[in-house]
Amino acid sequence: MTFSESLNVGRVAESMIARWLMRRGFCVLPVYEKAEREYKGPQLFSFSGEFVAPDMLAFNTGSKAPAIFVEAKCKTGFTWSRRHERFETGIDLAHHLDYLEASKRTGLPLWVMFLQKGGAVKDAPRDKPDSPRGLFGNEIGVLDGRRSHTYDPDNGGKGGMVYWSPDFPAASPALRLIASYEEIAQEA
Prior knowledge:
By secondary structure, the protein is α+β, with helices and mostly antiparallel strands. The chain has a single domain, classed as Trna Endonuclease, Chain: A, domain 1 (3-Layer(aba) Sandwich). 25% of the residues lie in helices and 34% in strands. The protein has 4 helices and 14 strands. A 6-stranded mixed sheet has the order 1-4-5-8-11-14, with helices on both faces. A 4-stranded antiparallel sheet has the order 6-7-13-12. It has a two-stranded antiparallel sheet with strand order 2-3. Strand 4 and strand 5 form a beta hairpin. The chain is globular. The two termini are 23 Å apart.
């Protein structure tokens, strides 16, 4: 898949998640890259630096948090970690660190949501051949405290990844199922 095709898939998922939020009473302000075809992505600027910005800002005066940031990810499915024996998904470590900083500096909760299409997974055990399907997510601070593991080859965050699981930790998984895939797709 080309970069342009991947970008389109991501935008479709963002739209699906935005419509789902709107049906739940949110108003959604999408955040776009600051210059077309720059491919740097949206930025959040502060006096002390700039950070990768999440995909949208959602407002709902009737909820506990009247405004939240939402980072929308579209994945074909969770991958099976043979080492940890569970399904996992992740994001760039540098982006994760920027999202933590954005939430801290603005005082707004930031949710990372993964729209997982599900289906058969390479290397999965026979008793778990299919990836979980649906919209999974949690608030960035919760995710940070419940990492499945982190891969950081240069110990600086650039080029690293952070991973979470819908099954770990067992008592309170990092990624919780927010809505079924069918519910999200139905509203598209």
